[in-house]
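Tutorial handout. Part one gives the primary structure; part two gives the three-dimensional structure as tokens.
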Amino acid sequence: MEDDTKVLIRAGDVEIDLSGAQSSVDERLTRVRQDDTWSIALSRIRNARERAIEAAVDAAREAGLPERGSAFRALIDNCSLIRKPDQVLGAIQYLRDVEGINDSPPRVIDQLFIDAGLEPPGNLSLYLNRLRERGFLVTPPSAKEKNRYAILTPEGRAHLDKRSRY
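Part two.
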């Protein structure tokens, strides 16, 4: 006999409520994930996360805190980015999406980690190359394969979304 399982997701007016035996919930969740409701819920969650990041930056700015470090640390903590490669991916997203920095050489990424009270990645090129190999990062053709211009791919964003806890 299987234990009862419950999955409840509320994102605004979208609600996904599944309960029952584990196998039944797994099957229904697979169907729901292929439905528009799932996409809408994920979109709302992403938007809420982006608003939270913006609010953290604004609050830090208003409070006179060293916004860069505290905002990046909040992103790392709120998204449960424990592994260093995930943190590097988060750093690139933060620099591009929050600070609007497109050119992020190793010293900029290292300083972001230091400002957040985290140990810098060390061999950053190794992390960036591996993230590129996994399809999480690309460099624009105009950048001549220089890692400092790396951009998250949709797969990279999806990977960070999977790591996030909501």
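Part three, for discussion. The longest strand covers residues 4-11. The two ends are 30 Å apart (CA to CA).
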